[in-house]
Amino acid sequence: MVRLGVRVIAVGAATVVLAALAGPPPAVASGHRPESQAQLRAKIQRASYGVPHITADSFAGLGYGVGHVQAEDNICVIADRVVTVDAQRSRYFGGTGPADANVRSDLFYQKAKDDRIAESWLHGRPDGVDAPSRQARDLVRGFVAGYNAYLRKVGVTGISDPACRGKAWVRPLTELDMWRGNWASIVRASSRAVLDGIVLAAPPAAGAPASTEALDPMAATAAIDAATANAGSNAYGLGRGATAGDGGMVLANPHFPWDGAERFYRMHLRIPGVYDVEGAALIGDPIVEIGHNATLGWSHTVSTARRFVWHRLTLAPGDPTSYIVDGQAEKMRRRDVTAAGITKTFYDTRYGPVVVVPGSFPWTTTTAFAITDANTTNNRTLDGWLRMGQARTVRDLRAVLDRHQFLPWVNVIAADSTGTALYGDHSVIPRVTQELADACIDAPFKPLYASSGQAVLDGSRTACALGADRDAAVPGILGPKRLPVLVRSDYVTNSNDSYWLANPAQPLTGFPRIIGNEGTPRSLRTRVGLEQVQKRIAGTDGLPGREFTSQSLWDVTFGNRVYGGELVRDDLVRVCTANPVATASNGASVDLTAACGALRGWNLTANLDSRGVAVFREFALAGGILFSDPMTDPVNTPRHLAADDPRVRTALADAVQRLAGVPLDAPLGAIQTEPRGTQRIPIHGDVHQTGTFNVITAPLVAGVGYPKIVHGSSFVMAVSFGRGGPSGRQILTYSQSTNPNSPYYGDQTRLYSGKGWDTVKYTQSQLAADPNVRTYYVTER
């Protein structure tokens, strides 16, 4: 029998105490009291903007509260995610034939189901870490129960969000749905990045001639990178040498999609005496992934490290489904998978699935390629984030990272109340050491590895297997001693370049190429991020003081400097003034006069009132930011426009053509907006390619502008640690709920439009100061 109780209590200055939560907290050790028979219960305190502060006396109860509130706000997003990992997209959303994206998705995820990947995560100990722990399992079990309780209460036909109201694809969750969804997120930058190549791989037809096609593996790498391009971030870890107080500060500024399953969700999760973390997680995840506790804050940025390696297979003569290892033929494992009414044969090897990328990694009569995905067995993520939330200092955090090695494709940037800051790429990275690369990457593929970090190993020798580091959490990945880590008392940063310049005063060097590059030019966004910190510490950025406060950190983050424009706008104006007509890529002659005038009057920012910024954006997207000088100082050079390069004028002509029908001097707020109901909310920020720190990406609609944001700043947190505990600012740019009938559908988006913020509400006194808090309880017996 299920009993759902919801009681609403207004919260003023006094703290409301949930009697059921009284008593000693549960133990943290893996042998703590099983919760399988315990009552699931949670106290929900909804603060301003709908942000839930959830308190429970167990991890199962905490998960129950999370599942319930996330269903209240985003049930359609979670249900849609389940359709994907359950391999049912074609059934509900259409799709015929393997050329259809839904069909390919279904075949990929059906193979994962048939391979029982999620089940393997939950049985035995496939790695050196006891994961998932009882607490992680309880979180998932509770989330499922909370989601299902809400769905039972409202019924499918009673869902208020029209996106899934009454839809047949909305159903109760199972725990396997959650673990499958977790796996899908973990392999985002690996198996999912080559999903099509796995699904479409097929041996050559009988009698096919040996291929004489020239291979271009670099093209495959570009396609793989494009598949993960819509993920990025900025983050600062600020130590006592960079802050106004003695404690540290953290800026979290992940750039993620504004729609779909990769939206963040703000929440504060608390088990008294055991776990107390405020921050955000991707919708559908039961644990805070970016956030802070009382003394430590952290964020993540997408790492440059590679998540899988290729193995070049030498095929047995006359049999393209057998390959040679140490002189002996080994048969591929053939697996027939049926989804969407289509049966597809997949081929697996000792290394992993065979993958085909035409023109780069083909399957011929003599050669095929398989991948080893280092994340496909990474069942440690929920435990890793749980333990991160319980760490008290940067030193504790580093111990968690070393022990669990769970981060799937991100760096970590952190700071604590002692004023210590940390950068680390502790992500899951295949064990390609320099020695292995020298011995096992054949000559044709060495340039690929040197330029991109993408390794193609000789699959015909067992000596070229990934091997094991003694300090690694699992075999086949680089151990902590081989990973870049930097601890400082001033600052560390990352904006999606490699580890090399986390702090230019102490470059990180000598690490395996698979992790990232060293000694190469940084992106404009990385450079402006570093310059902003340096100028703030020097007191030369025009803001008061010389250190970071919550106010100055917010002002810097949303200052919307367009660094590329600062460097080359004046030279570009001289070019277009001297050459008022240019030839576009399509051969047309284009008058640059109006564009030149718009650029001349532009204030070099991407604020709502900035005029001319769209011209520079399209110029940058057309590849126009070309430099004439070399990199001599990685933060400040190159910096001079290659004014004599004809591609510069062509890019500006292309920009004018693309903006036809859009006033070139229109204020950004008039042409870049986000719809919420009948309202169009003006949005500030600009694309990564222009060197804007506050990334906002919106497709250009001909004659209109940028009427829908698809990607960019999402959960933004500026938290500091002082004697009174954590304080600061935070916002979820696209708001808490995807439901147009929710009061939390556009409120934070309007707040973001005005560069506003919501305050950190970590302590009970901070929460009690919010006049909008409403409290209710959810219980299941």
Automatic annotation (TrEMBL):
Keywords: Hydrolase, Signal, Zymogen. One of its GO terms (molecular function) is hydrolase activity, acting on carbon-nitrogen (but not peptide) bonds, in linear amides. CDD domains: Ntn_CA. SUPFAM superfamilies: N-terminal nucleophile aminohydrolases (Ntn hydrolases). It comes from the Bacteria. The keyword Signal applies. Residues 1-29 form the signal peptide. GO terms for biological process: antibiotic biosynthetic process. InterPro entries: Ntn_hydrolases_N, Penicillin_amidase_A-knob, Penicillin_amidase_dom1, Penicillin_amidase_N_B-knob, S45. Belongs to the peptidase S45 family. This is Aculeacin A acylase.
